[in-house]
């Protein structure tokens, strides 16, 4: 299920998003103990205003202003898009040089569309990685990649580990790419979970050659709303806006109207997210300790990666489904993570607490299976 890396793709060569082919049918099963949701539960109670939804663009409101106000930037540094996936497409198009190699360096592990959308844009994709234990870059290896590409795409709060790019590596990467004339696209869809901490460092603040993309999808639990954005230097954002007009035109009025209601309440949502983390994480730690599972717990955010010692796709099919449990296989992000599960702790505390004995039974079955094989 890992992302498909390679050259330009089109027609029958368009790579599938294997994880979604796996996940969507299982999500529709409505398993009662769902630890896969990388967003979180929030009672938004948003009431649609039909007039605003049908006539949004006649109201004289610029949605980029909501993003600009929240981040303290001017509106000419913001482009609004339909979710983070479209924002990534616009950002890559904006960051590519007018003339030059259409080669993109993408950080792995990653979610399929982060890498694969570049291939649909006619780009060659090559990869670089952080050390999974230390979280640090091999800077010599990354420099070699920078020398081959026109754009670098990375995810500072790494999916699926939840760990944030170190400040030292962030500053170094910003300088190294600027020196080589390489633009950077930073997928920050999970970063708002770190607001108010030392780990909240949007990449666009590190250089005029960097575009940050974000959305209301994950941290704010508004995935179906499809409201995303790009922040960067005004010249790069003008490129993105031109791409938006060519490929999309205006964004959806109903989505903009609903986002207008949500934006004033985003801090309220983050407070609830942090409350969920405070309540849920100790319960997860207790289960993992009972099964002698050592994991690299992230210092912030709403998900982490745990080792289970066996193929996670098979484990979900054989043991997760009968228990009504759903979690995200690590192989969604990288083949080397096939023996891991991503567990999300952003759900309602009562539901999360009810899922912990089920997760424990799941881990017990894996242990019993291993004991049987070794007997």
Strands side by side in the biggest sheet? 2-8-7-6-5-3-4
- What is the straight-line distance between the termini? 31 Å
Largest sheet: 7 strands, mixed
Oligomer: single chain
Count of alpha and pi helical runs: 12
Uncertain stretches: none
Structure class = alpha/beta
List the helices and strands in order.
HEHHEHEHEHEHEEEHHHEHEEEH
Mean pLDDT: 93
CATH superfamily of the domain at 48-264: Type I PLP-dependent aspartate aminotransferase-like (Major domain)
Task: Please tell me the CATH architecture of the domain at 48-264 by its name.
Answer: 3-Layer(aba) Sandwich
Describe the structure.
This protein has a domain at 48-264: Type I PLP-dependent aspartate aminotransferase-like (Major domain) (Aspartate Aminotransferase, domain 2, 3-Layer(aba) Sandwich). The protein has 12 helices and 12 strands. It has helices spanning 18-27, 50-55, 64-71, 83-95, 112-120, 139-146, 167-180, 234-247, 253-262, 266-290, 312-323, 349-374; strands at residues 33-34, 78-81, 103-108, 124-129, 151-154, 183-187, 210-215, 228-231, 303-307, 325-326, 328-329, 340-344. It has a 7-stranded mixed β-sheet with strand order 2-8-7-6-5-3-4, sandwiched between helices. A 3-stranded antiparallel β-sheet has the order 9-12-11, with helices on one face. Strands 1-10 form a two-stranded parallel sheet. Strand 5, helix 7 (167-180) and strand 6 (183-187) form a beta-alpha-beta unit.
């Amino acid at each position: 299920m890992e992302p498909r890396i390679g050259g330009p793709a089109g027609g029958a060569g368009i790579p599938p998003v294997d994880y979604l082919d796996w996940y969507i049918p299982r999500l529709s099963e409505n398993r009662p103990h769902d630890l896969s949701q990388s967003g979180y539960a929030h009672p938004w109670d948003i009431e649609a205003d039909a007039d605003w939804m049908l006539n949004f663009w006649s109201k004289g409101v610029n949605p980029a202003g909501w993003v600009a106000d929240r981040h303290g930037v001017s509106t000419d540094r913001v482009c609004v898009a339909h979710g983070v996936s479209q924002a990534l497409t616009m950002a890559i198009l904006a960051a590519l040089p007018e003339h030059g190699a259409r080669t993109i360096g993408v950080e792995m592990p990653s979610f399929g569309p982060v890498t694969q959308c570049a291939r649909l844009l006619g780009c060659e994709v090559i990869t670089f990685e952080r050390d999974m234990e230390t979280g640090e870059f091999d800077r010599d290896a990354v420099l070699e990649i920078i020398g081959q590409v026109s754009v670098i795409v990375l995810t500072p709060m790494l999916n699926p580990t939840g760990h944030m790019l170190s400040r030292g590596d962030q500053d170094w990467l910003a300088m190294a790419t600027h020196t080589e004339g390489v633009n950077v696209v930073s997928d920050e869809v999970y970063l708002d979970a770190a607001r108010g901490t030392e780990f909240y460092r949007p990449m666009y603040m590190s250089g005029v050659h960097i575009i940050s993309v974000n959305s209301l999808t994950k941290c704010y639990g508004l995935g179906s709303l499809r409201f995303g954005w790009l922040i960067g230097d005004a010249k790069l954002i003008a490129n993105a806006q031109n791409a938006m007009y060519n490929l999309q035109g205006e964004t959806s009025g109903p989505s903009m109207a609903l986002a207008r209601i949500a934006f004033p309440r985003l801090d309220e949502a983050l407070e609830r997210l942090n409350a969920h983390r405070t309540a849920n994480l100790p319960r997860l730690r207790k289960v993992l300790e009972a099964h002698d599972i050592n994991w690299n717990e992230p210092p912030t955010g709403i998900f982490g990666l745990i080792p289970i010692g066996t193929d996670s796709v098979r484990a979900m099919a054989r043991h997760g489904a009968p228990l009504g449990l759903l979690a995200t296989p690590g192989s969604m992000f990288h083949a080397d993570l096939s023996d891991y599960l991503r567990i999300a702790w952003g759900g309602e505390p009562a539901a999360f607490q009810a899922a912990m004995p089920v997760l424990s039974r799941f881990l017990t079955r894996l242990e019993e299976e291993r004991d049987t094989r070794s007997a």
